[in-house]
Amino acid sequence: NWKMGDFVELEIARIRELVGDRALVLGAVSGGVDSTVGAALMRAAIGDRFKAILIDNGCMRLNECEQVKDTLGKHLGIDLTVVEAGDLFLGRLAGVSDPEKKRKIIGSTFIDLFEQEAIRIEKEAENTPNSGKVEWFLQGTLYPDVIESLSFRGPSATIKTHHNVGGLPERMMNGQGLRLIEPLRLLFKDEVRAIGRQLGLHESLVNRHPFPGPGIAIRILGDVTKERVEIARQADHIFISMIKEAGLYDQISQAFAGLDTNRSVGVFGDQRVWGYIIILRAVRTKDFMSAEIFNFDNAFLQNVSRTICNQVEGVARVVYDLTSKPPGTIELE
Ligand code: XMP
């Protein structure tokens, strides 16, 4: 429609006006539709003065990093730096099982790395035609987030500290005087998707289920270790692939496989094993504030369970989470 048609051009003009012709803009990308559309708009507006950063926190989905490099770097021509920080994140997360502590550690580690990157990028740009200061930080805020932050919420309203990968704390705003640029702040999710299509993004990216900034770490109950991330990641890949093969992906708002804290006894051949427990979750929702569980066929779930137990070493049991939101949240933590 006309409004969407004009949006891209108007927003590009607004970004150019705001940023001017010297400043650099830093932006975190995750492989999700919001950060990709934001990055594509920035690239269209200011070219290589937009610097995208992908922080690999060691808790991303299987092959995710490669996919983001392909889409943003090769396909969209965005100046992208991948910061491999899996060991740093997992090191800081070692022995931490409290959900809020996990989120805080992950959030502040993201910020540490952005600060380092901002300094490195400015240095690197010195003496090039694109020399300038990093003055802006791209944030993929959508309209519902804007409304939420405007409405009054008491202290008890904080159910979880959300860390958007694009989230920027006061420390960075005040310390480095960065300003936020939010090209999606007037859009709802379906409008972001429409813009994504208009910008030529692949349908599979445009329709992708949301993925939280802290990644698999908040889908693993208890300690986050390399081994546990790997198990959750492989199980998740199998679950999502089977959902796609069954043609169910677009009927589900968000699905994933997580990992329980405890282990459970199983029997493989004539061997007793003490294996991990995978938790499958799939929900339908309009606004992610409330959600109902997706009703799979039992035969489908049994097939997923069998496949995961057979293919992911160390898993002895698979359960399906029947909790709607509320009382459950969509993520496990
Ligand atoms: P919950 O678990 O709160 O999730 O019911 C609602 C939606 O928010 C996403 N989510 C997050 N996204 N950083 C993000 O970027 C976070 O820390 C975070 N926690 C939850 C979740 O995936 C779901 O879509």
TrEMBL record:
Homodimer. Its main location: cytoplasm. This is GMP synthase [glutamine-hydrolyzing]. Transmembrane segments: none annotated. Its EC number is 6.3.5.2. One of its GO terms (molecular function) is ATP binding. Residues 2-208 form the GMPS ATP-PPase domain. ATP binds at S30, G31, G32, V33, D34, S35, T36. The chain holds residues 210 to 542 of 542 of the full protein. It is an enzyme of class 6 (ligase). GO terms for cellular component: cytosol. It comes from Penicillium daleae. It catalyses: XMP + L-glutamine + ATP + H2O = GMP + L-glutamate + AMP + diphosphate + 2 H(+). Keywords: ATP-binding, Glutamine amidotransferase, GMP biosynthesis, Ligase, Nucleotide-binding, Purine biosynthesis. Catalyzes the conversion of xanthine monophosphate (XMP) to GMP in the presence of glutamine and ATP through an adenyl-XMP intermediate. Pathway: Purine metabolism; GMP biosynthesis; GMP from XMP (L-Gln route): step 1/1. It is found in: Cytoplasm, Cytosol.
